[in-house]
Amino acid sequence: MRIANLSGRLVLVTESGAVDVEEASQGQFGSDPTAIYRRWDDFVAWAWSTDLPPGTPFDDKDLGSPVPEPGQVFAIGLNYKEHALESGITDFPVEPPVFTKFRSSITGPYGELELPTATVDWEAELVVVIGTEARFVSAENAWDHVAGLTIAQDFSERTRQLVPPVPQFSIGKSFPGFTPIGPVVVTLDEFEKAGLDRADLEIGCSLDGEQVQKGRTNDLIFSVPVLIERLSAVLPLQPGDIILTGTPSGVGGGMKPPRFLQVGEEVVTWIEGIGELRQKCVAGRPHTTASAS
Questions:
Q1: Secondary structure of 14-42 as H, E, C letters
Q2: pTM attached to this predicted model
C-alpha cells in the first residue's frame, strides 16, 4: 500500500489515482490520516481483503504529510559514517544520538521553504512509521512493528543549532516548514513486490538539479531494527510515531567552504521505491540568534 494525505483526508494511492479510505470502507475507517496507525492491524486486514474502487486523479500539490500529527518524533544524528566524518566526528557513537523535531515544523511533501537566515542546511532522511506498539523489542522482531517507510527533509538552521556553549539541535531544526514528509507511506510488502530491499534503498538530494547527497540506507551505523530496539528499551514507541534515521554525507555545513540554501533554489529529496519531496526556497522573516546575557 501507498498511504497518503490528500487535502487532509486519508487515501490509498493506486495506479489509477487516490482512493478515499472512509468512502471505500463505508465508514469503517475515518478520514484522519494519523488515526489509522492506531488501528493498524485492522486497517491492513481490510485493505488486503478488499477490492478497491478505481482511484481519482489528483494534483500532487494537494498532498500533505502522510503522518501529520505523530505523537513522538525521534531524530537520529550522525548515523552514516561519512556524514559523521564530514561533521568532524571520528569516534563513532556507541548509542544513537537522539533529538526531536517539534511537530509544528511538519509539512507536506511539496511547497515553499522559508529561509529565516543565510545558514539553512539540507539533510535527506529515511523515515520509519511505527504501526504497533514497541516496548523492549529485539532487533530480530523490530520490522514487525513498522507500518511503513517514507521520506523527510531535516532542514537545519545551523547557527541556532550550534549556538555555543550548548548546541540546540531540536529548536534549530524546528522552524516552520523544516520537516516536510511524504509523499506517501509505503508498506514493507511494496518493496518486496518491486524487487527492492527495504534495508538497502538509494537516498539522495539535489539543489537545482545538482546532486549534493547520494547514499544507501544500508550504510546506517544503527540500522532500523537496532534503532527500534534501542529506543523501545527506554520508552514505548506508539502507533504513528516516526523515526528520522539520519542523513548521508553531502550536507552544506560539511563542505569547504560551507554552502547553505539560497532564495530561489529548489531542493529535491528522494528515496528509491518511495518518491520525492520538492521545496522551493523563499525569503522568510529574518531571524537572529540571541546572545546569552
A1: ECCEEEEHHHHCCCCCCCCCCHHHHHHHH
A2: 0.95
Same domain flag for 124 and 182: yes
For residue 290, tell me if it sits in a domain.
no
271 with 243, same domain: the answer is yes
Q: Are residues 135 and 36 in the same domain?
A: no
Structural domain of residue 29, as residue ranges? 2-58
140: CB partners within 8 A, 6+ apart? 225
Same domain, 19 and 97: no
Task: HSE, CB side, 13 Å, CA atoms: give it for residue 117.
Answer: 18
Q: Residues 14-54: pLDDT tens digits?
A: 999 999 999 999 999 999 999 999 999 999 999 999 999 99
What is the C-alpha separation between 34 and 181, in angstroms, rounded? 13
Q: What is the pLDDT of residue 81?
A: 85
Q: Within this chain, do residues 32 and 110 fall inside the same structural domain, yes or no?
A: no
| Distance, CA of 1 to CA of 36 (rounded, Å) | 13
Do residues 10 and 31 touch, judged by C-beta distance below 8 A?
Answer: yes
What is the pLDDT, as a whole number, of residue 92? Answer: 81
Q: Quick one: 21 and 126 in the same domain?
A: no
pLDDT attached to residue 264: 98
Report d(CA 82, CA 205) in Å as an integer: 15
Give me the number of domains the chain comprises.
Answer: 2
- Residue stretches of the chain with pLDDT short of 70: 288-293
3-state SS class at 59: coil
Q: How far is CA 164 from the centre of its chain?
A: 28
Task: Give the end of a domain, one of 22, 39, 58.
Answer: 58
What is residue 84's predicted lDDT score, i.e. its pLDDT? 78
What per-residue confidence (pLDDT) applies to 41?
96
Tens digits of residue pLDDT in 132-143 = 999 999 999 999
Task: Check whether residue 126 and residue 207 sit in a common domain.
Answer: yes
